Amino acid sequence: MLIIHEHGKYTDPVRWTAGMTKPGAPIWVDLLDPNDDERRCASEITGLRIPQRNDVVNLALSSRIRTDDGAMYLSIPYFADSPDNHHPAPVGIVVTGHVLMTLRFEDSPAFKLASDSCQEHRWESSADVLATLIEAIVNLAAKRMEDVSADLKKLSDRIFTAQRIGTPALRNCMLEVGRLEGEQARNRSSMLGVQRIVSFVRAKKPEWMSDDVEVRLRVVEHDLRTLDEFDDQLTNKLQFLLDASLGFISTDQNHVMKVLTVTSVATIPPVILAGVWGMNFKKMPELDWTFGYPMALGAIAVSILLPVLFFKWRGWLEGD
Q1: Where are the alpha helices (DSSP H) in 205-291?
Q2: Which residues cross the membrane (predicted)?
Q3: Cα–Cα distance for residue pair 49/39, rounded to 1 Å
């Protein structure tokens, strides 16, 4: 898909198809998993070479962000700005003094948000479009982190409750921790790439970038530092909830072992008594007693009850 925004227009972007007239003054050329015809058209419009997906992913770290012939080549190797997208895809960005070209391979809410903003804000330059796109990415990342924080609050209320939680429920809580950690990890990888881009663009600050755009990028860089601190808090909270779930599972298992231990100890005396009265000796006075059998049953019952009462008195059965 090839989406073209023209310079100085409030109208909706144009989705290019084969046979259409090429726009005269594009300001943003957005490629979404393009085919060969769309690549050829974008190359003719911008005068730039359109890389393949492997070219963006396999770039060396030093080449992912660079300048060449007045153009800034930027890339985010792992970009995922949607909770439903579990497979981060690379994003390539090339910005010159006249046009912004983006290359992506997955649908993105941030790109749609930036595209929709053209109806309210007339872009003055390609740097203005770049700032708008980065702001949209950061704003949605902040929203996703807030959603993760809200989910962690709910998960914390589920784990730390006065009612005793069984191991299956705690296992589900651990699975939820894993899901949230995966979502936050994808968000973290995206923000790392954006942070490197913002720092690089601010450090270079080409002549065609206005002071207003530089101020916006400075605010974005401050927001990214704040989100980085927020990410540390969420990571610590995730680790805490994971440790708490494991601790409660261990406690639950200890309760089970305690009950089994009490049961085994309480059954030792009756086994001994039954073994004694089950011996086949000829002279056992209890065999001739009228109430010998009820007495034996009562002694066995008392031998079970006494250890249980002793454990209860010591408080070893609390919580079971």
Answers
A1: 211-266, 268-277
A2: 259-279, 291-311
A3: 9
Distance CA 270, CA 308 (A): 13
Q: Determine contact, residues 198/228, Cβ cutoff 8 Å.
A: no
Q: Which tokens go with 150? A: 């809200």
Query: Of 40, 49, 45, which is closest to residue 23 (Cα–Cα)?
Result: 45
CA gap 224, 7 in Å, rounded: 29
Cα dist from 259 to 14, 196, 270, whole Å: 71, 57, 18
d(CA 320, CA 318): 6
Task: Provide the 3-class DSSP secondary structure of residue 112.
Answer: helix
| pTM, two decimal places | 0.74
Angle (deg, nearest 10), helices 211-266 and 167-204: 160
- Per-residue model confidence as pLDDT tens digits over 17-45: 766 666 667 888 888 888 888 888 888 88
Number of residues written out for the chain: 320
Q: Show Cβ contacts of residue 179 under 8 Å, excluding neighbours closer than 6 positions.
A: none
Query: What is the rounded CA–CA span in Å between residue 243 and residue 174?
Result: 9
Closest among 39, 1, 9, 45 to 24, alpha carbons compared? 45
Residues 6+ apart with CB under 8 A from 232: none
Cα angle 164-168-172, degrees, rounded to a multiple of 5: 105
Residues 6+ apart with CB under 8 A from 217: 131, 134, 198, 201, 202
Position 112: which residue type? K
